Amino acid sequence: MSTLTAPEAPTRTYNAYSAPLWQRLLMTRETAVIALTAAVILYSIVNVPNFDGPLTLKFLLQDIAPILLIALPMTLVIITGEIDLSVASIMGLSSVLLGVLHEGGMSVPAAALLALLAGLVCGALNGFLIAYVGLPSLAVTIGTLALFRGIAVGLLGTKAITDFTEKWSDLATGTIGETKIPLVMIPFAVLAIGFVVLLHFSTFGRGVYDIGLNDEAAHFTGVDVARTKMVLFLLSGVVSALAGIYFTLRFGSARGDNATGYELQVIAAVLLGGVSIFGGRGRLHGVLAGVVLIGVLSSALRLESVTVNVTNIIVGLLLVASVILPNVLAWASTRLPRKATPAAPRESHTPENAASAGVSTRGSDS
């Protein structure tokens, strides 16, 4: 018998099968949204009257500030495959609580703290029903949307509370120094950095992606699925309440119907920014670009005297397109012909082939 030593198989590396770095960085949905946002801004500056005025940046950032805030936790919620439709009604409830408590003699900081606590309770209710009871988030948050809005309107009725001091209104509408950047961008920047670290640079964030891809597999790999979802809905409730407080102080008015319809703009921005509605995919920089894109479109259309209803139609179309387009592109990519890679010829382990490859053929006489 002969002992044959086969040639060593070539080692396969990740780089041999991955796209080039520039392609992985630039050929993404997030990059496309950023490019589209830049194009819309340039077009608006050139073609929309007064868009490049000195106050446009200030009002634009003030308008999108609540959406920017709520989009941070909403991104993580949708990446897990869930959704929170109650964020706008939590804004309205926190607005009413701030107004009612302040009218009753409480200082604005103390009333704001209790409004944040109310947002935490709202998020805890959503999180408990979804994470621990196991109810679908769509059904739960549709129900709590009506519940929280009903409580807000029930507490205040149809009247508005407007007796906020100018100090707090000026704080909400003030800018950083001599710039046109609103002060609200400071807490937003702090929260944005925190959420970026949480999602992209922590084990908690990796668990969020794992849950979105497959929550059962995530559970068996050690991710506490229920606790993770609970934390995300708590964050969503608190940040929504914070956005409601800012909204109230900026306009100097606490009403039960404040921020009605904001959930549509938040979800549209998140999905437009590259987050998959099915979970497991998305990045925060794309979401922030999506928020800015919707804000720029709304501002430009308003300067062109386009009605709010038409703007809502455009935002709705963007939402539908952001859901359908990735699936269409994925389907189209599967229909494209692919060049087959020829298989490498297999060498037979005969003494002749082994000898030609320089392989030892020692054996014993039978």
Q: How does this model look, in words?
A:
InterPro entries: ABC_transp_permease. GO terms for molecular function: transmembrane transporter activity. It is found in: Cell membrane. Its main location: membrane. This is Autoinducer 2 import system permease protein LsrD. The chain has about 375 residues and is mostly helical. The chain has a single domain, classed as ABC transporter involved in vitamin B12 uptake, BtuC (Orthogonal Bundle). The chain contains 15 helices and no strands. Helix 3 packs antiparallel against helix 11 and helix 4 runs antiparallel to helix 5. It is globular, with a radius of gyration of 27 Å. The N and C termini lie close together (about 10 Å). The C terminus is likely disordered.
Secondary structure elements and their pairing?
Layout lengths: L20 H6 L2 H19 L8 H24 L7 H17 L4 H25 L4 H20 L9 H8 L11 H16 L2 H11 L1 H6 L4 H27 L10 H11 L11 H20 L4 H28 L15 H6 L10
Q: Major sheet: size, sense and barrel closure?
A: none
CATH architecture field: Orthogonal Bundle
Helix/strand structural class: mainly alpha
Count the strands?
0
Global shape: globular
CATH topology: ABC transporter involved in vitamin B12 uptake, BtuC
What share of the residues lie within helices? 55-70%
N-to-C CA distance:
8 Å
Give the count of helical stretches: 15
Number of domains: 1
What's the average pLDDT? 85
Element string (H = helix, E = strand): HHHHHHHHHHHHHHH
InterPro entries: ABC_transp_permease
Pfam family, one: BPD_transp_2
GO molecular function, one term: transmembrane transporter activity
Organism: Nocardioides zhouii
